[in-house]
Amino acid sequence: MITLIAGADLYAPEPRGTTDLLVAGGRVAALGAGAAVQGDAVETVDGRGKLLLPGLVDALTHPCGGGGEGGFANRTAEIPAADFIRAGVTAPVGALGTDSIGRSLEVLYGSVMALRGHGLRAFMLSGAYRVPAPTLTGDIARDLVLIDPVVGIGEVAVAEHRGTQPTAQELRRLAAETRLGGTLKGCGGTVLVHVGEGAERLALLREAIAGSDLPAGVLYPTHVNRSHALLAEAAAWTREGGFVDITVSTTPELIAAGDITALDALAALREGDADLSRISFSSDAGGSLPLYRDGELVGLQAAAPSALNDLLAETLQKAPDQLPAVIAGLTANPAAALRLPGVGRLLAGGPADLLLADAQSGRVTDVMAKGRWLMRDGELVNG
Description:
By secondary structure, the protein is of the alpha/beta class. The protein has helices spanning 81-87, 105-117, 140-146, 168-185, 203-209, 228-239, 252-256, 262-271, 306-318, 323-330, 332-337, and strands spanning 2-11, 15-24, 27-31, 42-46, 50-54, 56-61, 89-94, 123-126, 150-158, 190-195, 219-222, 244-247, 279-282, 291-293, 296-299, 354-358, 364-369, 372-376, 379-380. The chain folds into 2 domains: 2-53 and 344-380, Roll (Urease, subunit C, domain 1), CATH 2.30.40; 56-337, Metal-dependent hydrolases (TIM Barrel), CATH 3.20.20.140. The protein is built from 11 helices and 19 strands. Strand 7, helix 2 and strand 8 form a beta-alpha-beta unit. Helix 1 (81-87) runs parallel beside helix 9 (306-318), helix 6 packs across helix 8 and helix 9 (306-318) packs antiparallel against helix 10 (323-330). The longest helix is centred in the middle third of the chain and has 18 residues, at 168-185.
């Protein structure tokens, strides 16, 4: 089947205006005005009144569930593929977090492969909060090279009371092993770094890179919207060649405790002269959103992939001038940070992973991955 999407407002993620896009053989065959074709094998989709975007790349998710702080009763549930599809996420990247004891990389692998079985272009990170990092094969580089969905290590915790307090040398060695694996694999090779509320913020990352041959981009800090002080360091990290990730999921309680909303964090990074092409947004879906007081857990709820679609909708309503930066941060930028070639962009000859969203509300209506519709007009497509 050949699919023609006609007359949509295309972001590739760069704004391309009203145009047409042709899909054939699971790839983008052509894009631009006049890409029209005719015939019985052509499905024509009316894109008028719709935004046409690359499928979202969610750089940090917990598809096999997360949490566990406060006991087994606080474990969060596995995320079904439908939740990612409805949010427009075609490339979720799964990770373990705090708990790599009650949950294993083998379980995560099974969840990621299940997402692939439902048509998504899913990936995973080996490792977890802890250093030394748990692996599937006993070797970090071997995990990347030999296990197809593995594209990096993470989320490794720094500045975090739940982490194992790695030294700069331990983090450097972890980064070097991960980069080697990505080099041999031909993609991936990034360490996703969970940055907690500790006062050291990004200091350990800088110390790990200083005096080495490693580029800043091998360490990819997430949750950088915990405080304005951390955002200031994050802006500097982008100017030094690194990528940073804003966590979109939050709660009123966490905001009251100091978290900064995604749009406000983007504004702060822009004011800090950050390189906007090195800023991404992730949902932390399946992860727990714990609230601590004096080091004690007092509350917890789970994040969801829908936070990313909520951000798109909020941007259209409150800050439409920021739409190009937000779309890039949901698509091409996380793909670049994780070194996932072809993902997060709509290019002639590239993968046909895309979504249509209502141009007024921003709500995702249609999702395609690998050239196959997974959702049409808000309804999941079976098979």
